Amino acid sequence: MRNIIITGAAGNLGKSAVAAFENADYHLSITAREAPESNERKTVYSTDLSDTGASAQLVANVVKNRKKIDGAILLVGAYTPGGLLEATMADLDKMMTLNVKTALNVVQPLLSHFRQTGGGKIVFVGAKTAMNPATALANVAYALSKQVIFHYAEMINESEKGYGTSAHVFLPTTLDTFLNRQLMPDADFSTWTDTE
Q: Averaged over 67-87, what is the pLDDT?
């Protein structure tokens, strides 16, 4: 059975990811604010992923319990609106912490593990709108954080190609969630991406 880490497992996308992978041939090591119970197919960890030391300990604990990690799906994140004149440094700090720091804190110790075990897969979630300057203008801090993730994945692929590790970034349109519908009630929901 392959072993994967899923962070942000209690979020809208996280719940869908856990459901999909729990029903396949995987053991899940998951992190979540509102954690479901562990069972034979998943182990739940309560970890502050914005803390570098706690994140390294998470990876160490998963390795101790499962011996080998095959991949990670990094879903901790958040959204905030705000254009060029409205976005604040507080917005940027929040987006960089939740969308970037939480991912980098897990990836760094994970890369060391992958180098020792023959590689693995890392999956990030970006945003299609963040990559287009015209649509990124409505959410500057969020878009910048997602652009960092995209380029970070490119760096991983350049650095780790000889170690069997690859990074992937999904770039969905707006996710169809209850919160997003509340934030954008006049949008065309038919163009949004279903979390499943």
A: 96
Report the C-alpha gap between 181 and 32 in whole angstroms.
23
Average pLDDT over residues 143-149: 98
Q: Which residues have C-beta within 8 Å of that of residue 164, sequence separation ≥ 6?
A: 114, 118, 119, 120
Could you tell me which residues are beta bridge partners of residue 121? 71, 166
Beta carbons within 8 Å of 111's beta carbon, 6+ residues apart: 156, 160, 165
Q: Nearest Cα to 169, choosing from 156, 181, 183, 178?
A: 156
Q: Tally Cβ neighbours within 10 Å of residue 166.
A: 17
Q: What is d(CA 13, CA 104) in angstroms, rounded to the nearest whole number?
A: 19
Specify the pLDDT at position 184. Answer: 81
Beta strand segments in the chain, E:
2-7, 26-31, 42-45, 71-74, 121-125, 166-170
